[in-house]
Amino acid sequence: MRLSVPPKFSADWLEGVCETLDGMLMRYVPQLGGVLLAHTKHELVDDMVRIINECPFGVVEVQFHSIVWAPKVGQVLYGTHSLSSPSHISLLFAKTFNVSIPLNHIPLGKYEFEHTDSPDEDDESSDEEDDGDMFGASPVHERVSGTDNTDNVPN
């Protein structure tokens, strides 16, 4: 992988590589095709660092071991419901990644959005059975984005 390393690391380019990769953690990296979760065993491909034209950044080819999260289209992921709205459902996957499912990907024949009162509007709500979230949505095991139409689901 080719990286641009800031000039402050000119005394130790490998330290600059580590610092640059640390800045890419938990972000989508197109060269890797996914989200960089971890990196180790950094190694310069050659001992030459190029300074191109008047740019002070050193350009270096580097090899390293990495853990990349790259789900495939059509892969089924399970998340925890975090928010419902008329336009989308939000989930938290692996307690780390936010997932948004837009309305056009929600089966309308099976689910519908049902607005509920927020907790501060409902004075009769008790703390002992607070399964909803702070936006007044119901939990995923009861409703995804509203009422589950279970009458048409075979047993």
TrEMBL record:
GO terms for biological process: DNA-templated transcription initiation; transcription elongation by RNA polymerase I. Residues 71-131 form the RPA43 OB domain. Keywords: DNA-directed RNA polymerase, Nucleus, Transcription. It comes from the Eukaryota. Residues 112-155 are annotated as: Disordered. One of its GO terms (cellular component) is RNA polymerase I complex. Residues 146-155 have a biased composition (Polar residues). The keyword Nucleus applies. It is found in: Nucleus. Gene3D superfamilies: Nucleic acid-binding proteins (2.40.50.140), RNA polymerase Rpb7-like, N-terminal domain (3.30.1490.120). Its main location: nucleus. This is RPA43 OB domain-containing protein. It comes from Vanrija humicola (Yeast).
